[in-house]
Design goal:
The protein is α/β, with parallel strands linked by helices. The chain has twelve helices and twelve strands. The chain has an eight-stranded mixed beta sheet with strand order 1-11-7-6-5-2-3-4, sandwiched between helices. Strands 8-10 form a two-stranded parallel sheet. The chain is globular, with a radius of gyration of 21 Å. 47% of the residues are buried.
């Protein structure tokens, strides 16, 4: 099991980060006009939401967000004075959502299945479509390749799990899968859209899961690339997820979608090779394929790479065919990395925030030269 995925689960819990349906068309909802929708986003101030809001407003829609009023966005800040702010708590205070109507509900903050149940049941008679932001984590443990939306997922955690972090990973997938089910129970298959993103990166990321690469590639020099030559990777720009979600809602496209990039199969070595010249910096690649060595030096957290083991064989082998057929598009990866780098060094963040990540003790960013030197010494033996 990878430390990166463990961190993802932990951060998703802190930040929020079934039997699947095949693509179909929603029943006619006369209140929905794709040219101007009223959209409620549950959440909206963290990572995905600010990009959904920006895109929705650009397309002429009206947006309301429901939050606790505590999280401050660090991207697209200018759009938040153009939306309706509803304050409450999904645990015990949904009064701000009562007796109101929206065309679309987008649930980005579903950290508990009961939260989804309560909001979906409350809104089912006053809203046209419910979009639940799930995760490819529902497929854990990832035993097979070419994982499609109709693959059976766990709705109950195993009774005996000794590893605490493994428990969390099972819990996360089961929680997301049951939340999907609560969406469908309330809104029916014909009014439910389930999106299952893989690792998201891009401007506004508060998890720091992907920031190593924009920062590191800009520096040049010897770049450590972990993993075996055929280790696959999957990732997607958060803005591609945001825009695809809004378009699904506009098109009334009910169903479940693996929102996964890149468009074609890619390995970890492919990823770094194609992005190493994103910036005007000379660099060379040092590939380290020894899992034991990488574990020893704490190099198991460089998303998008995931060490392949009995739990994660298919974690980066998820099919995106259905989503692409329904309009999922992808930004150029180098452009995404450059724009993420620009955001990271903008006024959206403080020097203290950047230093906390870039100067973190025992991180690969800090210890890379030492790790590469150790690897070269071992290779000479």
């Amino acid at each position: 099991m990878s430390n990166s995925r463990r961190k993802f689960i932990k951060n998703s819990v802190l930040l929020s980060a079934s039997i699947p349906l095949l693509s179909s068309s929603l029943l006619s909802c006369s209140s929905i006009d794709k040219n101007k929708l009223s959209i409620l986003i549950l959440g909206g101030t963290s990572f995905l939401g600010p990009h959904q809001i920006k895109y929705a407003l650009e397309r002429g829609h009206k947006v309301s967000i429901f939050t606790r009023g505590k999280t401050k966005p660090n991207v697209n800040k200018e759009v938040f004075d153009k939306v309706e702010h509803l304050i409450g708590d999904r645990e015990n205070n949904l009064s701000a959502l009562e007796n109101k109507k929206w065309d679309i509900v987008i649930d980005n903050s579903g950290k508990k299945a009961k939260w989804t149940q309560k909001t979906a049941q409350l809104l089912k008679d006053n809203c046209g479509v419910y979009v639940y932001t799930s995760s490819t984590g529902v497929y854990f443990p990832y035993k097979t390749a070419d994982i499609k939306e109709d693959q059976k997922v766990l709705l109950k955690e195993p009774e005996v799990i000794e590893d605490e972090m493994l428990k969390m990973e099972y819990w996360y997938g089961v929680m997301k899968a049951n939340s999907e089910q609560e969406t469908i129970k309330a809104f029916g298959k014909e009014r439910s859209i389930i999106v299952r993103p893989t690792y998201m990166f891009g401007p506004g990321d508060k998890t720091d899961r992907f920031m190593h690469w924009p920062v590191r590639l800009a520096k040049g020099g010897e770049i450590l690339v972990p993993g075996k030559t055929d280790d696959p990777v999957q990732y997607i720009d958060v803005r591609d997820v945001a825009e695809f979600t809004i378009r699904l809602a506009e098109q009334k496209s009910a169903g479940t979608y693996n929102v996964v990039g890149p468009s074609d199969k890619e390995t970890m070595l492919d990823f770094v090779t194609k992005t190493q010249h994103t910036f005007n910096a000379q660099s060379t690649i040092v590939q380290i394929d020894d899992y034991d060595f990488l574990k020893k030096h704490n190099v198991l957290s460089l998303v998008p790479w995931i060490p392949v083991d009995e739990y994660n064989y298919g974690s980066a082998r998820v099919s995106n065919t259905l989503a692409i057929k329904n309009g999922l598009t992808f930004r150029d990866t180098k452009t995404s990395i450059k724009e993420t780098h620009n955001w990271w060094y903008s006024d959206n963040l403080t020097d203290e925030r950047r230093a906390k990540f870039e100067q973190k003790e025992d991180s690969v960013l800090v210890k890379e030269k030492e790790i590469i030197a150790d690897w070269k010494n071992i290779s000479k033996l």
